[in-house]
Model the fold of this input.
Amino acid sequence: MKTKKTITIFILFFCFFQVLEAQTLKSDIRNSVLEIGKTFVDIPSERLKQLDQIAFLIFRNTKKSSDVKIVMVDKTNQEISQQAMIWLRTGMIYYGHSNLFTIESAGVVPDNKLLSNLSDLKKFGFKIKKKRKKKLKAYEVDYGSGKWMISTKSLASLNQNQAVEIYLESISSDTSLNKKVELLFSDTNTIAREMLYIATRINSLIPKK
Done:
């Protein structure tokens, strides 16, 4: 009961905050974020605990360093890690904290295939355009006041110094220099909701001026 009451409070705050701060996302994306936020009550209690722990871990790292990198990791850097990166970035922009930390995605063994799943983002208000980045298949994701260039990359290619790596699939990797955090997904349809929830929790931890 207490958990559900807390989530209800988050949803009310989520709706109110959208009017005040979400000025850099397209209006369609802001509306999508708001609708997804209303489904936080559907997140199972055990999963909520895990999401809360990850949100606190990220926030704690921002208190230790001004140069924090969050890396969403899966096997091939295709659907799961790319979606997680995009939605966590979106959530942080929504709350006006886009510069609090860097969010990247990577694969242990990246697959340079077409990221066809990115087209699903169009229904939420994003604009997707195919680009070519040398030999990589790349995409430009327009979210409002800016654009992200999205392509596959390997975990080993990133500067992993002080990075927080969040593993979204069960993977054994020898490339990591950091403590591994697992947030495994069996249903990709929940990625947007859970990344936005993490952003909401991080925002709640930040002292208000």
User: Anything to note?
Assistant: The chain has a mean pLDDT of 86.
